[in-house]
Amino acid sequence: MKSQFKLIKPAIVPVLDPAFRPPVLANRAFLAEVEASGAGVPFMVAVERDHGRVSRFDTKVFDPRHPRAAANYFYVERLLKFLLWQFGGWKVTIHGPAELVRYLQACYCD
User: Are the C-beta atoms of 76 and 96 separated by less than 8 Å?
Assistant: First the structure.
């Protein structure tokens, strides 16, 4: 699947890595585009870790019928990977479009 996620060139380009594109800029651009489209739908991730502690992250993605919905796949996969790294969890619960849930299951489940 070809990514429809837009990588943004930073205002100050690092001399040692001129091709570097900070993920935070792409995330901001994606969320701004979702908001501007008026076609955002909720996407929530809960990560459970030791002693039953749960961290939750709420965001929005394009409605699956929106022309830019293909960008959702890269966004949610990178988001989940980051949240697992950040929280160090072992169990994930997701609420969002069924297509994205199935995609993440295919990416992360055996």
Answer: yes
pLDDT range class, residue 67, cuts 50, 70, 90 = very high
Q: Is the pLDDT of residue 16 over 80?
A: yes
- Cβ-based neighbour number of residue 55 at 10 Å: 14
Question: Cβ distance 59 to 79 under 8 Å?
Answer: yes
Domain of 84, in residue numbers: 23-108
pLDDT given at position 11: 95
Buried b (16+ CB within 10 A) or exposed e, 76-94: bbbbbeebbeebebeebeb
Whether residue 4 lies inside any domain: the answer is no
